């Protein structure tokens, strides 16, 4: 699976920088939330600290202040939780709209050139395309596909910044790959295989679309 180890250095640095910014932001939010929570705890104590305070403090104002601080603390905590558990990518939501076609789906031979057209993609996302086993083994983190590690001829990366194929503004992509019937853990001469489109490393390797293919014996 070449896509795991074939991420360019600039991409790796970019991921590191984004993570660093996120951690700084989370620490800042935690400070805000903790401060607000501390004020909430202190407010009732201040309101009943002495008899003079009791006679001059309006309970309704104290309650309103506590409510405002509680809401602020809740917002801070909610923001932290959303940072730690980001919303799913739009790629998964659009998966049902993606269609893939290949000019030759039956009687394929190793070395054949397969021309693939895909529509309905998210231009801001990234995808991989390859001939893979129809069923991913249980527990496998990524699809099991044909070809050797680092083989950009039998697999394609659809991504507008660093990919081997681009995605147009309307979500279409066209590319060619060289057919290979075997790979680590898969043999399309005996196993059911598909031409699979799935999310890249930034999209969690989630299945997006596929079309069945067969190889000639």
Automatic annotation (TrEMBL):
One molecular function GO term is:
DNA binding
Which spans does this entry mark as compositional bias, Polar residues? Answer: 48-59
Question: Ranges of Low complexity compositional bias?
Answer: 64-77, 85-96
* SUPFAM superfamilies associated with the record: Actinoxanthin-like (SSF49319)
Q: Where is this region: Disordered?
A: 48-96
One GO-annotated biological process of the protein: defense response to bacterium
Query: Is DNA-binding found in the keyword set?
Result: yes
Which domain of life, per UniProt? Bacteria
UniProt entry keywords in alphabetical sequence:
Antibiotic, Antimicrobial, Disulfide bond, DNA-binding
Hey, which family's this protein in? Belongs to the neocarzinostatin family.
Name under which the protein is recorded: Neocarzinostatin apoprotein domain-containing protein
The organism's taxonomic lineage, starting at the top: Bacteria, Bacillati, Actinomycetota, Actinomycetes, Mycobacteriales
């Amino acid at each position: 699976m070449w896509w795991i180890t074939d991420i360019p250095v600039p991409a790796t640095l970019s991921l590191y920088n984004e993570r660093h910014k996120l951690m700084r932001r989370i620490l800042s939010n935690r400070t805000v939330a903790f401060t607000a929570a501390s004020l909430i705890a202190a407010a009732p104590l201040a309101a009943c600290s002495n008899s003079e305070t009791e006679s001059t403090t309006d309970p309704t104002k104290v309650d309103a202040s506590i409510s405002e601080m509680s809401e602020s603390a809740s917002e801070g905590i909610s923001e932290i939780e959303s940072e730690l558990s980001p919303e799913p990518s739009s790629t998964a939501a659009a998966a049902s709209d993606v269609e893939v076609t290949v000019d030759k789906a039956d009687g394929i031979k190793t070395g054949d050139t397969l021309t693939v057209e895909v529509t309905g993609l998210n231009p801001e996302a990234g995808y991989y395309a390859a001939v893979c086993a129809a069923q991913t083994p249980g527990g496998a983190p990524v699809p099991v596909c044909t070809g050797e590690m680092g083989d950009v001829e039998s697999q394609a990366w659809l991504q507008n910044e660093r990919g081997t194929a681009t995605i147009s503004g309307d979500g279409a992509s066209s590319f060619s790959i060289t057919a290979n019937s075997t790979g680590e853990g898969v043999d399309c001469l005996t196993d059911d295989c598909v031409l699979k489109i799935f999310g890249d490393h930034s999209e969690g390797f989630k299945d997006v679309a596929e079309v069945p293919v067969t190889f000639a014996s």
